[in-house]
Amino acid sequence: MINYELSLLQDNPDWLVLLNAYAVAEPDQEGWVARVSDLDGVELEDVPQIHGKLIAFGFLDFQLTDRNDGVLYQLTSLGRQGLIRLREAPTEDGPSDEPVSSEIAAAG
After folding, report:
1. In 10 A of CB 8, how many CB atoms?
2. Buried b vs exposed e over 72-96: b needs ≥16 C-beta within 10 Å?
3. C-alpha 29: how far from chain center
4. How confident is the model over 59-77, as pLDDT tens digits?
5. Distance (Å, rounded) from C-alpha 95 to C-alpha 27?
6. Would you state the CATH architecture of domain 3-107?
7. DSSP letter (8 states) at residue 28
8. With a threshold of 0.85, does the pTM exceed it?
9. Residues with Cβ < 8 Å from 70, sequence gap 6 or more?
10. What is the β-pairing status of strands 60-64 and 33-34?
11. Cα separation of 56 and 47, whole Å?
12. Ranges of each domain in the chain
């Protein structure tokens, strides 16, 4: 991961909220998750644009399915790496106390 992608995530906290929602969601057998649209602290009308940005920058992947399921999503390796690195990065208060999900760490 290059610093540009990491800085994009740092500069856009709503992106991190959405990425984290996919990181902790229960995937189907193939690793895909139904679209997340209800996020604490993120306006509902901003969620589609955030999905688009995360896909465009390679943090999130999508798959079109049938009419019943719609679109499914999953973190890319870049998205997982970004979450891990930002959780491990020291802040002004020291390293983050938030645990890295074992699912993220195992997949990265």
Report:
1. 15
2. bbbbbebbbbbbbbbbeeeeeeeee
3. 19
4. 999 999 888 778 999 999 9
5. 29
6. Orthogonal Bundle (1.10)
7. -
8. no
9. 34, 35, 64
10. unpaired
11. 14
12. 3-107
